[in-house]
Amino acid sequence: MKLIIATIKPFKLEEVREALTEAGVRGLMVTEIKGFGAQSGHTEIYRGAEYVVNFVPKVKLELVVADGAADQMVEVISKTAQTGKIGDGKIFVLDVEQAVRVRTGETGDDAI
Question: Cα(90)–Cα(7) distance, rounded to whole angstroms?
Fold first, then answer.
């Protein structure tokens, strides 16, 4: 099993969720986060005063999939979340040793 962690722009969340659902994902976790990467924040004007925003709002997606589905899901996220502008996000893929569905006790691929 693989854990896919993706950070994307918040306005892309629903589009990515729909694409993942169509690709067969049955569940995912979403967290609102703040961070910075290559864009290193930006400046905004609020009530006539300019200020620096060091941390940009992002959304973090976490999903666990079978080994064979990981590449497809990474491609789905990448294509759907892409705007072509700086700050589109990152995707990380990690190995998962074990998964357990608490309700039924199912383990491994059956738990996801």
Answer: 5
Q: Which residues of 51-68 are buried (b: 16+ CB within 10 A; e: fewer)?
A: eeeeebebbbbebbbeee
Query: Domain containing 23: what range?
Result: 2-111
CATH of the domain at 53: 3.30.70.120
Q: How far apart are CA 30 and CA 107, in angstroms?
A: 23
pLDDT in tens, 58-100: 999 999 999 999 999 999 999 999 999 888 999 999 999 999 9
Which token pair is 99? 């998964």
Q: Which residue pairs from 31-40 have beta carbons closer than 8 angstroms and sit at least 24 positions apart in sequence?
A: 31/59, 31/60, 31/62, 32/57, 32/58, 32/59, 32/60, 33/7, 33/57, 33/58, 33/59, 33/60, 34/58, 35/7, 37/87, 37/90, 38/86, 38/87, 39/86, 39/87
Give the total number of structural domains in the chain: 1
